[in-house]
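Slide 14.
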Amino acid sequence: LSSITEITGDLNVTGTATLSSLAGLESITAVGGNLAINNNAALTDLGGLQSLTSVGEHLTIGDNPSLTNLAGLGSLMSLGGNLNVNNSEALTDLVGLGSITSLQGSVSIAKNQALFSLSGLEGVVSIDGTLNIYDNTSLTSLGGLESLSSVGGGLYLKNLALTSLAGLGALTSV
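Slide 15: predicted structure.
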């Protein structure tokens, strides 16, 4: 795969029991369709995707119980669809998504038990769709969303540990 720089369709890394690394994908700069990284029991990080700058459609990261960070996505600037980060029990923050400033779809951040911070979303100014943040049992604040000024769809928050909505101070329209 080292000679592939662009995938015009979808890239799915799904259903692996022992894959612990995405090494070998380092040269990929663009995925034209969806990027799905789901149900990978041993995957601890997204290293290997550090050259990725754009995903044409949706980015889905879910059911990766050993995934601790999203740092491998540090170059990602453009996402054409939804962002879903769900059911990754060891994920503590969203650092790695810091180059994204606007999202054309909806955002769902749900059921990540260790997620205590939305750090990594500081650059996001607008979300065209809905923003759903729910059932992240360790999330106590919305820090990381301080730059968010508009959400085109609804805003749904259901996190029993939340103690403050202060991270939404710049939000002017929903």
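Speaker note: The chain has a mean pLDDT of 96.
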